[in-house]
Amino acid sequence: MNAENAQRREIETLSTKEVYRNRWMRVREDAILRSDGSEGLYGVIEKADFAVVVPLGSEGLTLVEQYRYTVGGRFWEFPQGSKEEGEYSPLELARAELREETGLSASCVLEAGELFTAYGYSNQKYRVFLATGLAQGERDLDPEEQDLVCRAFPVAEVERMILDGTIRDATTVAAFGLLRMKGLL
């Protein structure tokens, strides 16, 4: 890519309008101009970035299972979550989510990478962390997490759960794959 193409935006924002907001998200519509001169509309969901933590202990990987209202079912996933903007650094957020959801603390938390949730419609990113040197403590669940179940599974069983569709959370699958490809699992 030459310097001229690097500076040129593929799509120019003509205007932006907020259409919805609550404490967890903002939805906006952007009127845009494409590089061919045609106009269009983009719907964008803005959400706080989050952390996903992959706890690796002597019994394997710790997953949490909870009811997910939007899809109407209970699902296994790695501990994950966000806080108010600027409340925590990404590493502090990872440690806090691990403790809150599982009661675990880790002597070592390694950042493995950063991914986008769904950049076709959202600007949200998440960082993947591997937590090792685990010690059990008390959980501190949010009201939405009162039904949360926590359990360790052997790594091979988590892989099987991904392959057979038991685990369907894209963040969990991506985090597992990233750590596996980096040779950390």
- Note the gap between the termini: 36 Å
CATH superfamily of the largest domain: Nucleoside Triphosphate Pyrophosphohydrolase
Would you identify the CATH architecture of the largest domain?
Alpha-Beta Complex
CATH topology of the largest domain: Nucleoside Triphosphate Pyrophosphohydrolase
Helix content bin: 10-25%
- List the helices and strands in order: HEEEEEEEHEEEHH
CATH class of the largest domain: Alpha Beta
Mean pLDDT: 93
Into how many domains do the coordinates divide?
2
How many separate helices? 4
Largest β sheet strand count, sense and barrel closure: 7 strands, mixed
Which stretches are low in confidence, meaning pLDDT under 50 for 5 or more residues running? none
Principal-axes geometry comes out as: elongated
Tell me what portion of residues adopts beta-strand conformation. over 45%
Using the CA coordinates, give the radius of gyration: 19 Å
Provide the structure class.
Answer: alpha+beta
Number of strands: 10
Domain Nudix hydrolase: 52-172
InterPro entries: NUDIX_hydrolase-like_dom_sf (IPR015797), NUDIX_hydrolase_dom (IPR000086)
Keywords: Hydrolase
GO molecular function: hydrolase activity
